[in-house]
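re the bet — no i am not wrong, look at it urself. input seq straight from the record:
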Amino acid sequence: MNDILVRLGLEPNSQFEFRREDVDLILCGLLFFDPTGGNPNPILSLLRYMIVCYLLIRYIRDIVFLPLPSALLIAFSAVLGCTTYFNTGSISQACAGVRFGVQILSTYLVLIHAVKIEGISRTLIIISMVFSVALVVNDVLMVALPYNHNDASVLYLLGNKFIVSYGHALLFCLLMTVTSARPSFALCVGALCAVMSYITGSMTGFAVVVIVVLLSLAPVALRSRLGNPFAIVVVIALVNVLVWGPANIFSNPVVQSFIVNVLKKSPNMTGRIPIYNITMQFVSQKPLFGWGFQTDIYREVFGFGNAQNGVFHMLTQCGIVGTILYFSGILLLLMKSNSGSSHCYYLYAFLLAMGIASGVEITLGFQFAFCVSLICAIGLGSSHEIYTPRHFSEKARKTYPLVKRGHHECSQCVSD
């Protein structure tokens, strides 16, 4: 317990000082989840808009630390909003598209400010607490209430089966980051997260949890090769080559046998293969700006579904222009993490798992960007880029003692 207090910047037996930044961190952490599951819900949608706008207005000044990624994501938001309006004629849908990009901007601005004021360790622990409490409540209700886990459209407290599963995967990575746990502890926590993900009925989410647990057991020598932006790019590119390239992995007899006999799924991957076959047509029809945010084009043709692929989901929504803006902004955020990457290998493991899953699911959206924002904030904090005298008055340094420790505090509390 004393160790946790020290990590939080408190002396043992001292009174916990709850700050305004902590409230904002809680709100930021809750943005990861989506209780609407993408379905229309005016009250929850309005609440999300209010939170995103509040966080953006409050922390907009911290945009000076990341001007280029911010400009790219703002441009992406504008492109996504405009193409959504031109394709649907819906102002509310267009606003939802703009919000998608703006909430990524708000998220990393909050996290950067939190690291600047409170330090890396306290920031990560508060985010971990938010995820822990939220998911425990969700899991209790998920087990206790008579949910139909076989229904793909079922909504749990925190969102659909994918959001809940990805939340468990990131929670595992956060706990590993803040505790530097032993392999035995990792396996226990990972097994619990995997069980809860399996209960949701999401095989993709279950696979993501299993992958992050396996990556957590990787030898130290291998971690430096996996925990960096280049590895993320390579994994996403390789997965898409296997799915869309000459290999056409899902037509391989061995893969087909695994899908049918082990995963107990249909040979067409629950409708994915027909979707993949027509996706190129959709992209070629509107290559530059796409069909708009959460496009209904797949539902109009098949009656269900989306691109079922992270990269092509973005291409069908905002075209080549929007996709380049989005992934360029995300990559630049990751590049800022380079100096702090040794402190956040487990978060990189989450990105790697989501990148692998992006071949068969839309895993490169906000949940992916949320983890990228965490890594970016850690990188900036570890590199000392946001601890400069012009950003802090003497009063601020006395109010927030963790600022005084800067890089020294950050590097020791979160290192493996």
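see?? Residues 28 and 107 are 6 Å apart (CA to CA). told u. also The chain has a mean pLDDT of 82. so pay up
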